[in-house]
Amino acid sequence: EAWTFGPVIRNLYNEYKHYAWERIEDEVESPDIEAEKFDCLKTIVESYGRYDGAALMTMTHREEPWLKARKGLPEIEGSNQLIVKDSMKTFFERKLAAYRDLQYD
Q1: I need a labelling partner for 31 at 20 to 30 A (CA). Which of 24, 37, 55, 73 fits?
Q2: What is the CA radius of gyration of the chain?
Q3: Structural domain spans, the chain
Q4: How buried is 4 (Cβ within 10 angstroms: 0-12 exposed, 13-18 middle, 19+ buried)?
Q5: Where does the pLDDT of residue 86 fall: very low under 50, low under 70, confident under 90, or very high at 90 and above?
Q6: H or E element, residue 102
Q7: Does residue 91 carry a pLDDT above 70?
Q8: Average pLDDT over the chain, rounded to whole?
Q9: The pLDDT of residue 94 is above 90
Q10: Which long-range contacts does 54-63 make (Cβ < 8 Å, 24+ apart)?
C-alpha cells in the first residue's frame, strides 16, 4: 500500500511496527522459502538494510510505483492505495538493467 511515509505491506507492518523508525537489530527467523527467493531477499537486505526509515522514505517518495499508486496526492496525505505488482516489476527490471549496463561498460 502507498502509505504517507512510503510503501507498506500491512501484515509485515503490523508485526514490526513497535520498532517505529529504529533499525531492527533482533534476530528474525528466516522464512521457509525457495533458495532463489531467499537469495533475492538477502540481496535486497544487503543493499537497503544500512538505511534508516527516514532515508528509505526519501528514496521511495521518488520512485514510480509509489508515485503512481498515490496518483498525485500530496506527500503528507494519507492513502492505502495498493501499489500494483506490475508497476514494481517494471520499475525494478529497469533498475536491474541499468545496473547491469554499468557492470559491463
Answers
A1: 55
A2: 15
A3: 2-24+34-104
A4: middle
A5: very high
A6: helix 85-104
A7: yes
A8: 89
A9: yes
A10: 54/21, 56/6, 57/5, 57/6, 60/6, 60/7, 61/6, 63/91
Question: Which residue's entry shows cell 559491463?
Answer: 104
Give me the residues paired with residue 3 across strands: 6
Cell for 101? 549496463
Task: Quote the CA–CA distance of 105 and 101 in Å, as a whole number.
Answer: 6
Which cell numbers hold the place of 96? 536491474
Instruction: Tell me the one-letter amino acid at 9.
Output: I
List residues bridging with 42 in a β-sheet. Answer: none
Q: From the centroid of its chain, how far is CA 41?
A: 11
- Residue identified by cell 492513502 is 79
Tallying the residues shown for the chain, one arrives at 105
